[in-house]
Amino acid sequence: MALAENAVGAPMNQTTFNGRVDFVIPHMGRTELLLATLESISQQSASDRIDRIVVVTKNREPLPPVADSRVEVLYHPEARTISEQRNIGAAVVTAEVLAFLDADIGLAPDWLAQCLALLFNRPGTALVSAIQAVTRKATQVECLRTALSNRAKDTAVQFLPGRNLLLRRTDHERVGGFPEHLQTCEDYYYTEQVSHLGDLYYTAMTFYYHLGEDKTLAQTFRKEIWRSEYNLKSLSGRRIPIREWPSILLPFWVALFTLLTVLILVTPWVGLVSMAMALLPAGLYGLRLLRFRPAQVHLGFPFVFYVVYFWARALGTVTGIRHLFKGLN
Q: What's the whole-number average pLDDT of the chain?
């Protein structure tokens, strides 16, 4: 994989930070993606800043050895959540700066150098994350999901996915680490808490590849069901900003009018109206996305994508109600 093919081309910023960085990577499942992630870390231009690379895996079988002696593997198959894995890793390392990566991330060679420079040179910055890039062979789903991730860049944002995060250890500790009671949505919960300490800066000065990105609509449907199961539980214990209410309420809207669509069998006009109301969010979001649509994505594809997306979110959110009334198994 040629990580430099989409390089942003910006000059590398310099930073007076002379400390060390520890990487923490939660892992379960596909070893080949983890190995690609580790390789991209070893190829960092600021590799001399890295002290330890800790992989916290739920796999029971031994992982293959890697050439980088800084890599340590901790086996915790009993860990209940990805948050617990991240917190386990953060607890054993000691560097001043923590880099949290998912186990399917390919970093640009200048990722660490650029992100460190921003973290220590940009006033008021608490956390830095890089934009997502795609390869030349990316599918329409990959291109569209990447465009969604990159709608705002070179700016402070309200929350971030946990794929690539760089922050000071002290700030990680001030927010109490990642929320271990959540199976999903934990990264949004965590970064929203960090945003109270300073800016979450989403930069286009460097980039990463999401090697495990959804490639088909079928994958999107399955994963969005899983991703949305803890939407409601992630609301507890924090103030809910207005911007989040659409994502909370729209799955119930879609679920309700999808169910009412069966009335088309007995009252056709009511069923047709219900069908139109169920599809309305996909239509509105698809229209909004047209201005962000990459050239590789066909004109009508955003609408199809959002139909699949909202039905999956509706199913996941509704079935996830059970998590409000019982603890993790």
A: 88
Q: How many CA atoms lie within 13 A of 93 on its CB side?
A: 34
Going by their DSSP bridges, the two strands 21-27 and 97-101 should be labelled as: parallel
Do 19 and 163 belong together in one domain?
A: yes
Range of the domain at 82: 3-213
Dihedral angle sign, alpha carbons of residues 69, 176, 154, 283: positive
CA angle 47, 114, 106 (to 5 degrees): 65
105-128, pLDDT tens digit by residue? 999 999 999 999 999 999 999 999
241 three-state secondary structure: coil
Indicate whether 329 belongs to any domain: no
Q: What mean pLDDT comes out for the span 161-170?
A: 96
- Same domain, residue pair 137 and 169: yes
Q: Which CATH number belongs to the domain containing residue 204 in this structure?
A: 3.90.550.10
Same structural domain for residues 38 and 185? yes
Q: Which of 194, 213, 232 is the last residue of a domain?
A: 213
Rank 9-13, 199-203, 308-312 by mean pLDDT and report only the highest.
199-203
DSSP state of 1: -
| Contacts of 128 by beta carbon, 8 Å cutoff, 6+ apart | 115, 118, 119, 165, 166, 167, 201, 203
